[in-house]
Design a protein that fits this description.
This protein is an alpha/beta fold. Helix content is 41%, strand content 21%. The chain has helices spanning 5-17, 50-68, 80-92, 133-144, 161-169, 180-189, 195-206, and strands at residues 21-23, 29-30, 36-37, 39-41, 73-77, 96-99, 112-113, 121-125, 128-129, 148-157, 174-179. Helix 3 (80-92) links the parallel strand 5 and strand 6.
């Protein structure tokens, strides 16, 4: 869900500018799932640009306060949400923890790293939402540990219906700084893609598993 449309377009412009998101409708990428995709997203690139990193940190923090109030702790999802989560926790002046994709196979066997207490309110930080699967695994781990998950905030979402359904079924609110609609709108405005390419990009989002076959 988008709270601020101007901010969404600004974040989309940043992602296109530094090629954190690449659009190639005529030369698609292949995802690990086997899906053909005209878009590739690597939000880790934003960490290499101090001005953009700062903007995102502040935008994350504003969304959290607007939507959820100040939580007791911020949790980053490994690995993409760890750095951004730590920056947001610093901005808000609150503790930070992070959630592994699975428990460690040695040592204490932790899945959640850092200090927290059961009953604390937590907001989860992600960099990207596709189907929502890995994000909701982290949410489940936090809940199992006794934390109250207020919601999740990410930089970008593909706006897949399956993600919306998965978050709804998990009873977990989520917000994003920008989304697929804002990205395409900004990409056309900046001449990154043509109107014809936009039709292909929209068709992919509506049926990604079959697109390009």
């Amino acid at each position: 869900m988008i709270i601020n449309n101007d901010r969404a377009l600004k974040v989309a412009e940043f992602l296109l500018q530094i090629k954190a998101i690449k659009l190639q409708p005529t030369n698609p990428f292949t995802w690990a799932s086997g899906w053909k995709s005209p878009i590739y997203c690597d939000n880790r690139k934003t960490l290499s640009y101090p001005a953009i990193r700062t903007y995102l940190r502040q935008a994350y923090s504003e969304v959290i306060i607007e939507k959820y109030g100040t939580p007791d702790v911020i949790a980053g999802v490994a690995t993409g949400g760890i750095a951004h989560g730590a920056l947001v926790a610093q901005e808000l002046g609150i503790p930070f923890i992070y959630v592994r994709s699975a428990s460690k196979g040695h040592g204490l066997g932790n899945q959640i790293e850092g200090y927290f207490e059961a009953g604390q309110k937590v907001v989860v930080i992600e960099d990207l939402i596709s189907t929502g699967g890995s994000s909701l695994q982290a949410v489940a781990a936090l809940r199992e540990a006794g934390l109250e998950v207020k919601g999740l905030v990410s930089i970008f979402t593909y706006d897949f219906e399956v993600a919306k359904n998965n978050f709804s079924e998990a009873n977990c609110s989520f917000e994003t700084l920008t989304d697929y609609h804002s990205l395409i709108e900004k990409a056309v405005a900046l001449d990154y893609v043509s109107e014809k390419d936009m039709e292909s990009l929209q068709a992919w989002r509506e049926n990604p598993s079959e697109w390009g076959k």
